[in-house]
Design goal:
This protein has about 375 residues and is of the alpha/beta class. It has one domain: Alpha-Beta Barrel (TIM Barrel), CATH 3.20.20.70. It is about 40% helix and about 15% strand. Helix 2 packs across helix 10, helix 4 runs parallel beside helix 5 and helix 9 runs parallel beside helix 10. The chain is globular and about 60 Å long. The structure holds ligand V47. The site of ligand V47 has 22 residues, from strand 6 and strand 7.
């Protein structure tokens, strides 16, 4: 039997795919539509015809960063005129604006500022949570938590608990990049290593915090690095079940140290989406992040394994600094129309995948809609 037929049989039977299967599915000889069809089957098995979105905003309190990841266009040196650090008032103003715009979530990440202590990052959560307790704060990646560990010399568990007590609701999936040291050592050698990233998410899950996971692809990595990455995430998910969503992040080269590399093609975007859906059989949701994929590819991805478009998003800087040409924000009508055009049923969710019901400017989160896993 050829390998594609054997993979099809495994997928139909709900069996797990191997490292070699993943590698095979990335090879250009396997027609993209065959991979997509299998991924769509799993996507519909897990999430039916639903496609989720939320109403959210981003907050990047500083872009000043001690690290110099080669793929990053957002970071700034301490004394660079491009560097900024938001005041408490500016941060609270963003919270107010988010609530007035009907947001249910604020996604908070930023640089690791040379002069700011853990207490500053903690205070951001405290201030926002006290002022806007219904706004879910999805904040600080494992890279930031690892930095707090370095700054305070305190255990991760204690730091995370303090953040949870202050109002942290979940953690985003950033900072994972590519775990394999052959790549990681070349694109972000100084920041949290793979083991540390995974250990921090494990601890977060043990404390009851749900988190997301990501993979940055389309730069210097090879297909086997991607498959290795997906399998490491799958193994942790087997242990904890704490990941909600996987987000494949398409590399944007403009203004980065890797600007000589061409942007990944839509074909690679769709194949990566589909292989991710097939390999991560234990992660409920796969997100097609429209900001970086572009709207057309994100719509198509809803039939290649993805069941979520992220949100309406406002104040996105990381990809727009790196050349993303997508708009800064989508209206609710726009995002729902994009989903309907793709033949899916739009469902507004909160960060933890509860269906959101709205009446006028009031909203309420109802039952969980996550059917996956
Ligand atoms: O870790 C940075 C990536 C990540 C570039 O959890 C770049 O719901 C492409 O993780 N080109 C941060 N990618 C963003 C992130 C994320 C986004 C949306 C939703 C969620 C979620 C998480 O962005 C970084 C890095 O992998 N990144 N620079 C670039 N030039």
């Amino acid at each position: 039997m050829n390998q594609l037929a054997s993979i099809r049989d495994k997928v139909l039977a709900g069996e797990r795919l191997s490292f070699d299967d993943g590698l095979f599915l990335f090879s250009p000889e396997v027609p993209l539509n065959d991979v997509g069809q299998l991924a769509n089957l799993v996507r519909e098995r897990k999430n039916g015809n639903f496609a989720y979105y939320n109403i959210n905003t981003h907050l990047n309190p500083t872009n000043v960063c001690v690290y110099r990841c080669t793929f990053c266009a957002f970071r700034s040196d301490l004394r660079d005129p491009k560097g900024y650090l938001m005041s408490d008032e500016q941060i609270l103003q963003r919270g107010r604006e988010a609530v007035e715009a009907g947001c249910t979530e604020m996604h908070i990440v930023g640089g690791l500022h040379h002069q700011m202590k853990f207490e500053w990052y903690l205070k951001i959560i405290q201030l926002l949570h006290e002022a806007y307790p219904r706004l879910h704060l999805k904040g600080w990646t494992a890279v930031e938590i690892n930095w707090f560990e370095h700054l305070t010399k305190r255990p991760v568990r204690e730091l995370l608990q303090e953040l949870i007590d202050a109002g942290l609701g979940s953690m985003p999936g950033g900072g994972a990049e590519i775990f394999h040291p052959e790549v990681r050592d070349r694109i972000c050698e100084h920041k949290a290593g793979a083991q540390s990233w995974l250990d921090i998410h494990r601890t977060a899950h043990e404390l009851g915090l749900r988190t997301n996971c990501t993979m940055l692809y389309g730069h210097i990595e090879e297909p086997y690095h991607r498959v290795d990455h997906l399998i490491r995430l799958r193994e942790l998910q087997d242990e904890t079940g704490g990941f909600q969503t996987f987000i494949p992040l398409a590399f944007h080269p403009d203004n980065t140290g890797l600007s000589h590399i061409a942007k990944p093609s839509a074909l690679l975007d769709l194949r990566t989406m589909a292989v991710s859906r097939l390999m991560l059989d234990n992660v409920p949701h796969i997100k097609a992040y429209w900001i970086m994929l572009g709207i057309g590819t994100a719509q198509t991805a809803l039939s290649y394994g993805a069941d979520d478009l992220d949100g309406t998003v406002r104040h996105e800087l990381i990809y727009h600094d790196a050349g993303a040409e997508t708009p800064q924000v989508l209206s609710v009508d726009d995002i729902r129309r994009l989903i309907e055009e793709a033949g899916r049923e739009p469902v507004e969710r909160d960060t933890l995948y509860h269906r959101v019901a709205r009446q006028g400017d009031q909203w309420q989160a109802a039952e969980a809609v996550a059917v996956g896993a």
